[in-house]
Amino acid sequence: MLFIKVFSTTVITLIISLKALFSQMSALNYEISSLVRPNWEYESFWAIPRIGETKPIVAISLLAGKNTVNVRCLDLEYLEIEKTFKPKTKLEREFLHKIMCKSINRAVKNTNGLDQLILKIGMDEVGLRFDFLNGWIEIVQIPEPPQPDEEMDGMGSGLDLHQQNT
Q1: Count of beta carbons in the 10 Å neighbourhood of residue 103
Q2: Which of 10, 56, 145, 151 is most exposed by smallest CB count within 10 Å?
Q3: Is 77 exposed, middle or buried (0-12, 13-18, 19+ CB in 10 A)?
Q4: Strands ordered across the beta sheet of 69-73
């Protein structure tokens, strides 16, 4: 009987904590979207077919000692990393990613108060997913960079192979 009471109390506490965390994340997403949206030209992308399927992720951090925001477009950055060990790697709609990245970069650089919000979150680097269809920005976990396969480790990187062949 005691076990059931402890278990049910733990489950109820967990559910309440998850609801609070979810509402806090939703509030932060709303605050970030509201700050950036006036400077973000997401509506100009609406004529592009399947624009809602492409949601670039960027990593935003503050430069040390400055109130300047640094933006890294992870899809493009990780593509370049992956090309070092898989030279034929392609990113679907790469040109669109480049244009979106420029738009995001411009919007973030022109947004006042974003640096204060990043400080408020308390993380060194924040991952954001930009939805160009809805104009919504969502905090996400920054994905791990691509790693070479085990079989590629034995062969060396694509650059090593290229240097050996020349």
Answers
A1: 19
A2: 151
A3: middle
A4: 69-73, 57-62, 125-131, 136-140
Domain boundaries, the chain: 2-165
Tokens 């790697």 belong to which residue?
89
Q: CA nearest 130: which of 147, 162, 157, 108? A: 108
Token pair 């993380």: residue: 123
**Residue 129's pLDDT band (cuts 50, 70, 90):** very high
Owner of token pair 């396969």: 149
Phi, psi of 68 (to 5 degrees): -105, 135
- Binned at pLDDT 50, 70 and 90, residue 127 comes out as very high
Going by the DSSP 8-state scheme, the letter that residue 67 receives in this structure is S
Axis crossing angle, helix 74-85 with helix 94-109, rounded to the nearest 10: 140
- CB contact at 8 A, 96 and 48: yes
Packed helices 158-165 and 74-85: angle between N→C axes, nearest 10 degrees: 40
Residue range 83-126, pLDDT digits in tens:
998 999 899 999 999 999 999 999 999 988 888 887 777 778 89
* Two structure tokens written together for 10: 């733990």
Instruction: Compute the distance between CA of residue 49 and CA of residue 55 in angstroms, rounded to an integer.
Output: 13
